[in-house]
Design a protein that fits this description.
It is built from 27 helices and twelve strands. It is an alpha/beta fold and about 675 residues long.
């Protein structure tokens, strides 16, 4: 164990190559993400073996010494890459993705990125975020959390073993086995039920480290016949390579499927090197393989920031040649990092050999990263505030050419990129972060349904309900101004992803099932409340209708009880959204066109709700006609970007829709404003 194991270095080389090739040429190795799982098993084996030796020699684990060694081994290179990533974020990356990159760099410095990504994976809006420069640090965060928890677990087991006077080695083995079983059960359950969280969550991955740790307690195979070890080695390698080529992004993972590469890795580690030219371990002895294994950590650190930054810096998409350029640059940076950062600091005979300077280095490095990212985030937020103030006058001037006003007032060049186009600001110009959305008076009914009040609340000329998912919520700013202009009191009922007309159906996992069940329940309660509210004179619906499963006839049946008493009903057609989930601010910033950047053909999409409203005698307002002209849809209108992501209106543009929307709703409901 004390000597370097060439076969394990070979596994490290294989793991990092799978990950890097997967990221550079995903179609070549669609399941290359399993390389991370190979790393987890290796870490579990090596760290458990090290800690067990220490327990057998000293009877305990010196936590501060153990963690200090981990700090010297891992932090210097990771902090260097994080600083470099910060530099790339500021100098190269679009301003529209700056907040995301800064927050993820800060989270990476604290080794909690996996939890941030887990939260964002289930965040309705953050789920579409583009990959940041440091997204790959999620696995390093999991690994660091393992290094913190594992020795604590072993100390806890030792304490319990001493109380019952049990065998310490056996107790540790049992403790690790319990972690393996419990974590694997959680992994299988979470991957099936909550896949968005499962991929990043540490408890879902802990069993992979435990699998490596259990190997330390198994009897050695050194006396097993060499032919059987050779055959078993090929089975182990196949269990890694086959998933790498067969699995893809649609494979439920980790869960049951992760058992295949984990068992394959564990088998190869336990077999060791059969010392036969017929065994795959023979390849691990090659100098190039050992070189990659020795530099695997730095290769992993550097490859992803280069992949993300290259297209932005060069204006070229990744291809076979650019992939080779990135691979070469990764290896050069990895070698330099390993030679001049990793090795010198890890083997330093100076102050870093002591614990206190080591922890001081860690604290200083982490604080420095968090400080520069936090300070830059503050500067970005301050710049956003200044810009927001500068466009207030533009939004107040309805005779001008800002946003949708440019179409209302027949301005020249309405799709030109002017000085007011600000991708960085627009990317955070989200309906629940700016404007009236967070301050609207909200109440909750006896049925538990919340609605918020917009527009004129004191003496309204008309009371209307405004119902839908986030594609109605992003119109709050416009509807608030419509209410003020027409004298309407608007009761806004919104729930992300819920139309108000959702029907029960079976979903593949509990995460999706809970979402649709909640939507069905919410819709039933909202419809009951609308039907019972005698003050309502008009109903306005807006949804991302083409993503819903309800048909028009069913929706019309649900709508019928709401129309008693001659209520007017209006459906707003959906915004077209950017093609292929392209985020508008990033697209506008990267295309660098002075006129009509990122425009696309208007899609033809079904709209069950519009059809149901027509069938019920109501009116349909074509919202897309404000965003698309001549069959072409626009990302920039009136010197501002239309969407803050791929399909939700930016607050500034939403506000500029108010005059047009007021006119359309006034006509549709045949109710005039008090001044008319």
């Amino acid at each position: 164990m004390a000597s370097k194991r060439l076969d394990i270095q070979g596994l490290r080389a294989l793991a990092v190559l799978l990950v890097v090739i997967y990221h550079l040429w995903p179609s070549r190795v669609p399941g290359g993400f399993i390389g991370v799982d190979v790393f987890f098993v290796i870490s579990g084996y090596l760290i458990t073996a090290h800690l067990l030796r220490e327990v057998e020699n000293t009877g305990t684990v010196a936590l501060s010494q153990f963690w200090a060694r981990r700090i010297r081994r891992l932090l210097p290179a990771s902090l260097l890459v994080l600083l470099a990533s910060f530099g790339l974020a500021v100098a190269v990356m679009p301003g529209s993705v700056m907040p995301q990159n800064l927050s993820e760099i800060g989270a990476s410095a604290l080794y909690v990125l996996n939890w941030l990504l887990a939260v964002n994976a289930v965040d309705y809006l953050a789920a579409e975020n583009s990959p940041s420069l440091v997204q790959h640090f999620w696995s390093l965060s999991v690994e660091e959390q393992f290094y913190i928890a594992w020795p604590l677990l072993i100390l806890l087991v030792l304490l319990l073993a001493r109380k019952v006077r049990g065998n310490q080695r056996h107790a540790i083995g049992v403790g690790i086995a319990v972690v393996f079983v419990l974590s694997l059960a959680v992994s299988i359950w979470a991957t099936s039920e909550y896949p968005s969280i499962a991929y990043f969550a540490t408890p879902v991955r802990a069993w992979e480290f435990a699998a490596g740790g259990l190997l330390v307690f198994l009897p050695a195979l050194s006396r097993a016949p060499q032919p059987s070890r050779v055959v078993a080695s090929w089975f182990g390698l196949a269990a890694i390579l086959v998933p790498a080529f067969v699995f893809d992004a649609n494979t439920p993972f980790p869960g049951w499927t992760a058992l295949i590469p984990v068992i394959g890795t564990a088998l190869l580690i336990h077999i060791g090197d059969p010392d036969s030219n017929w065994a795959p371990q023979f390849l691990a002895r090659h100098g190039l393989v050992q070189f990659i294994g020795d530099n695997s950590y730095s290769i992993y650190l550097w490859h992803w920031p280069l992949i993300v930054a290259y297209p932005v810096a060069t204006g070229r998409l990744l291809g076979p040649r650019s992939g080779l350029v990135i691979l070469a640059a990764t290896i050069v940076l990895a070698v330099l990092t390993q030679r001049y950062v990793e090795t010198p600091l890890r083997r330093s005979a100076g102050p870093l050999r002591s614990r206190r300077p080591t922890y001081a280095f860690m604290a200083l490095g982490m604080v420095a990263i968090v400080a520069v990212t936090g300070g830059t985030s503050y500067a970005v937020a301050t710049a956003d505030e200044r810009y927001e103030s500068s466009i207030e006058a533009e939004l107040e001037n309805r005779e001008g050419c800002f946003g949708a006003y440019a179409l209302d007032n027949h301005c020249s060049d309405p799709f030109a990129v002017t000085g007011t186009v600000n991708p960085a600001y627009t990317s955070s110009d989200i309906y629940y972060k700016r404007g009236i959305s967070m301050n609207a008076p909200c109440t909750t009914s006896a049925e538990g349904v919340k609605h918020c009040e917009l527009g004129e609340m004191d003496d309204p000329a008309l009371t209307a309900a405004f119902v839908g998912d986030s594609h109605s919520h992003h119109l709050w700013e416009a509807m608030h101004l419509v209410g003020k202009e027409l004298g309407w009191r608007v009761l806004a009922y919104q729930s992300p992803g819920c139309s108000g007309f959702d029907v029960p159906r079976e979903e593949k996992n509990a995460e999706d099932q809970a979402r649709i069940d909640n939507c069905v329940e919410w819709g039933e309660k909202v419809r009951e409340e609308l039907a019972a509210n005698e003050a309502l004179e008009a109903l306005v619906f807006s949804n991302r209708a083409h993503t819903k499963k309800t048909d028009a006839a069913t929706a019309a049946d649900m709508l019928a009880p709401l129309l008693a008493g001659g209520r007017e009903v209006v459906a707003l057609t959906d915004v077209p959204g950017m093609p292929e989930r392209v985020r508008a601010p990033e697209c506008v910033e990267s295309e660098r066109s002075e006129y009509d950047p990122c425009s696309w053909e208007r899609p033809e999409r079904p709209n069950f709700l519009a059809d149901a409203v027509r069938a019920s005698g109501g009116d349909v307002v074509d919202l897309g006609s404000r965003l698309c002209t001549g069959g072409k849809c626009h990302a920039v209108i009136g010197g501002t970007i239309v969407y803050f992501d791929s399909n939700h209106l930016a607050t500034a543009f939403s506000r500029s829709l108010a005059p047009w929307l007021a006119h359309q709703l006034e006509d549709a409901t045949a109710v005039t404003s008090p001044e008319s």
